[in-house]
Amino acid sequence: MKKNLKSLLSLGILTSLLLLLVSCGNEKAPDGVTVGNARSEYPDASLIVLSNHNATLNGVKVETYDYTWHCDPTAVHTDVKNAPAEYYTGIKLEIDAAVYIDSDLPYMPMLDTADFRAVNYDGETEWAYYYADGKNDDYIFVTLPHLGSSLPTGMMHTEAEAAENRVLHITKAGTYILEGTWHGQINVDLGEEAFTDENAKVTLILNGINVTCSAAPGLVFANVYECDNGWEDRDTHSNQVSTDGAGAVVILADGSSNFVTGQNIYRMLKTKYKDAESTVGVPTQKKVRKLDAAFYSCMTMQIGGGSKGSGKLVVTSGFEGLDSELHLAVCGGNVTVNSQDDGINVNEDNVSVFFMNGGTVTLNPAQGAEGDGIDSNGYIVINGGTLSINGVTAPDSALDSEDGITYTGGTVIIDGKTQSYTPGSTFRESGNGGFPGMGGRDDRGGFPGGPGGNGGRPPEPPDGQRFDGSGQPPEPPDGQHFDESGQPPELPGGQMPGGNQPQPPQ
User: How far is 340 from 366, CA to CA, in rounded Å?
Assistant: First the structure.
């Protein structure tokens, strides 16, 4: 009997050791997420392990607080300046913690659909809901996009739905490995002073996560260092910027598969006008927040892979997929976006640049009423990697850029058809969002244009170049030039425009 017991104990210990060894490798986690090798590749990084509404930081439990965001546009509150609908309950964290959990999750509340009205807001038709507190009734509380004739009620959420989510806050600079499952939002916020602080950088190494937020974006970089913090002082802008030094960096660990699912927060407004003299539509107000994507950065962001580039990220969104308010560079890894609207959006007018520098990006946008593949309010630059865009129809575009699209290398695939561009070519869009001479789809998989495009397949210029209406090759934006290799001029220090493959700080 003792011998049998000893044998059973030995077998149990051996089984436990084998399970432990397996758990250190690349395995399928219980929720289907594949864990990568970040722990061994980045041994100096802090480790955050997620477990639904709980987490540990370097093996120590992260504290949870009951601080909760609420809003009610029918009453006046004083918690948030110029935002009288917003207020908080519970105890706010007072200690200086690098990571903590609470319920401070702003979301678009469920409002009576009968009280919305269509207005011309900032040049666009939108659904507006006004404050109804008896004091601020002339101000708009929120707007929703006017997508067809129906109100997008799916963008609104009940308080009970929001309460099912928690927010994991990261408040200190550093490199963090993220693993596990989280129901809620990951929010990186180092404070407003981080904007010009070169030390206020956060690198998130995704090593097998499944983040699902049912009422707001799943992952947000709110306040970190902005590497292009002087953009407002420049008189002119171009696509020759670098994202090296970005304060928001994401690395997809080799061997990992990562999932971020989230919703958007459309326009929530302050009781303060931007321009009291505005005569176009209703007066525009200052913004409290507008987070349009499931994966959102308020600052320039870089996304890269590990040394092998095998890490994967899948973003699924109820509106736009992957957004940055300034610049965004994909330098490595494998990114897939499934979205109801735009797949990727960079949104500072005539300033923002989206860079495709390496890795693989697959976009499945416009699964709702409309949407572009990549929508840049500034520039698009394709330097390398493989970019695949599926399912966009006119008048929307696979690539939609206000200031032009520059191609220097890489592969572009639209609806399964590989495009052919001359390195060094720059395309300028027509007013309807299509390329000049390329309105409509053709049998070569050309970029979709909108109404008014020339339609069909234009004649090919000599040597495969693409000409505008003058018969001359298009000029690069802002007088830039390409050398004989077809490559754009190098930035100081030989940096690639848009930045190189990101690496965690030493």
Answer: 5
- Give the SS3 label for residue 367: coil
Instruction: State percent of the chain over pLDDT 90.
Output: 71
Question: pTM, whole model, 2 decimals?
Answer: 0.83
Q: What is the pLDDT of residues 215-240, one digit of tens each?
A: 999 999 999 999 999 999 999 999 99
SS3 412: strand
Nearest residue to 161 via CA among 238, 215, 106:
215
Q: What are phi and psi of 184, to 5 degrees?
A: 150, -145
Host H or E run for residue 162: helix 159-162
Q: Which residues contact 458 (CB under 8 A, 6 or more apart)?
A: 437, 438
Q: What DSSP line would sit under 280-308, residue for residue?
A: SSBPPEEEEEEE-EEEEESS-EEEEE-SS
Query: Which amino acid, 198?
Result: E
Task: Indicate if the pLDDT at residue 449 is higher than 60.
Answer: no
Quote the CA–CA distance of 36 and 31 in Å, as a whole number: 15
Contacts of 422 (CB under 8 A, 6+ apart): 407, 463, 464, 465, 466, 486
| 91 burial level (CB within 10 Å; 0-12, 13-18, 19+) | exposed
For residue 301, how far is the Cα from the chain centroid? 9
Q: In sequence order, which residues have a C-beta less than 8 Å from that of residue 175 and are 6 or more positions away?
A: 42, 44, 45, 46, 202, 203, 205, 504, 505
* pLDDT tens digits, one per residue of 239-284: 999 999 999 999 999 999 999 999 999 999 999 999 766 667 899 9
Contacts of 23 (CB under 8 A, 6+ apart): none
**What is the rounded CA–CA span in Å between residue 279 and residue 44?**
56
- Distance of alpha carbon 478 from alpha carbon 424, whole angstroms: 15
End-to-end CA distance of the chain: 57
Burial class (CB in 10 A: 0-12, 13-18, 19+), 21: exposed
Residue 338 CA, distance from chain mean position: 12
Q: In whole angstroms, what is the distance from residue 86 CA to residue 142 CA?
A: 12
CA-based radius of gyration for the chain: 24
Look up residue 271 and give its two tokens: 């009781």
Question: Looking at this protein, which amino acid is placed at residue 258?
Answer: N
For 486, other C-beta atoms within 10 Å of its C-beta total: 13
Q: Alpha helix locations (H) across 1-127?
A: 2-23, 38-41
DSSP state of 198: T
Token pair 């500034």 is at which residue? Answer: 378
Buried b (16+ CB within 10 A) or exposed e, 53-70: bebebeeeebebbebbbb
Residue 133 half-sphere exposure, CB side, CA atoms within 13 Å?
Answer: 19
Q: Report the candidate in 501, 499, 506 with the shortest Cα–Cα distance to residue 241.
A: 499
